[in-house]
Amino acid sequence: MRKPNEIDFWRGFALITIFINHIPGNFIERFSYRNISLSDSAELFVLLAGWSMRLMIENPKRPLTSGGVVYRLWGRAVTLYIAQTFITEIAIFILAAASIWLDAPFLLDWHNAGAVFHEPIEAHIGLVLLTHQLGYFNILPLYVVLMVAAPVIALIYRTFPQLLLPLSLGLYVLTLAFGINFPSWPIEGTWFFSPTAWQLIYVIGFLLAGKTTDVGAFARRHVRILRWIAVPIVLAGVAIASTRYFPDLADLPKSGRFFVIFDKTFMSPDRLIHMLALCALFAGAYTSLHAWMPRFASFLALLGRNALNVFCAGSLLSLCAQIVRYMYGGRIVTDVILFAGGVAIMALVAWISEWHSRSQKEQGALAPALPSPFRSS
């Protein structure tokens, strides 16, 4: 297993905050940074996903051909799709079982699940096509789409690297100008996360991973200046989020409103700018945090190294926690126990995942190595 690093640390941090925020109303949620921020862990998670994608396909020790890039990224997309399908079906089972056990049929309508029970044929087609998504289980579909598009991003960068960011920014502007989003079905509506908007922060994460080129190299050369610029942006975000001072939609024109409202679906510019400011402000902080709290930093990095498995576990645990809070009320003691128990189980999932991966590597080392058709010579 790789050693603890900054990317895994912040990914682990994002996983913990996602788990907390997916239990609405709980006491621990009050201390989540989204309460004093215009952005939250979703932006951080997607940015780090783009960063990780760059590291995945640009390993100098094992360079990939163009075919290898497509094969690896689409293989990852299939893994994410399977994970989304699995946790969604388990979530449906949890809601159905809880509704029977607690004699609470209204649970069948929680989090957009009602169509699964009232229109099962259409809803299950929608689940397979990702056009029907449960509430709090809608970030992986975005990730699947981004990973399907990832070979295009990678190949554009390999061929015309200077065009990648302008093309991504242009698609983002068009999305905000015309409200472009994927449709939902069988329930009318659109996706909670617009992939054509969120692709921008994914691409920015991809470019920030560059150490000697691209936006990443520029940011590293000017990190001190960027931090000074970031401070007032972050403070403004704290003031706005704390006072809940948001513009009234009635006062805004329909055309282009997503440029000025604080909207998560389209990752409006305020959220994007605030997340980039946070990145500039806290870039490099991992070294100090690891020196000050080595066990805590290593723990978050453990979660981040096994992000997919931990995320799936956390999503299901947050749903279970919501049901427990319904049963026993939202007392502080209940919330603390749910938080501690959920994080402990997520840690156990990460540990088991690493143990399994380590066992597979040890077994693979005993087998003869086969040449890969996707590795460049």
Rounded radius of gyration (Å): 21 Å
Average pLDDT rating: 89
Q: What sequence of helices (H) and strands (E) makes up the elements?
A: HHHHHHHHHHHHHHH
Number of domains: 1
Please, could you describe this protein's structure?
68% of the residues lie in helices and 0% in strands. It is mainly alpha-helical and 377 residues long. It has one domain. Helix 2 crosses helix 8 (195-208). The chain is globular. The two termini are 26 Å apart.
Give descriptors for this structure.
377 residues, mainly alpha, 15 helices, 68% helix, globular, disordered C terminus
Characterize this entry briefly:
The protein is built from 15 helices and no strands. The protein has 377 residues and is mainly α.
